[in-house]
Amino acid sequence: MNPAQSPRTRLGIIGCGNVLDAYLPQCHKLQLRGLAEIVLAAGRPAQQERALTLGIPLFTTNAEEVITSPEVDVVLILTSMPEHARLACAALEAGKHVLVEKPLATSLEDAASLVALARRSRGHLVCAPFTILSPTFQTIARRIRRGDIGKPCSARARYGWAGPSWTEWFYKPGGGCLFDLGVYCLTSLTGLLGPAKRVTAMTGVAIPEREINGRKNPRRSRR
Asked: What's the pLDDT score for residue 15?
């Protein structure tokens, strides 16, 4: 069937902050191809004008309206990290397909429950990051599986930065470098080499005191 004749996948967005900027270009490309369209978005009251400026036709401050809307096929969850698991669970239970920003959840228990729910749900669950879908990654994966470099015995992934100076969420429970950035390394390594059998982690504080939005934000070292 010609894509132009196929029903468009209707997208509902929860979260209209900065992360939305990374998704809108792809949504618009799909819309131009007649494959998808954004029908509804939910966010904070202060985000309504921005959402309408970005071309989102309908806006609400109630995420439940997106989740339960009969006009929405796929729910995109782009909220703060602690909300991901709860909203993804509600959307799957409503029979929607779900695309959630990373991380899937901020606790192993919530993540396991969500994966179990996805296995018996009508909807599909997809979680960022999407690095394993890139042409470069796919080429590397094929060559590893083909044995072009022999058997990998060691691998290292590095990705990070010093942390933001304009927001405190990064330094509070439910945020942090592992949830925000470490997931890229974990996704790449496990995507190329398979599931992790054993994990060892270490942590420290490189900058004991930061200034966030003009306020001092001390961090204590944790082991």
From this structure: 95
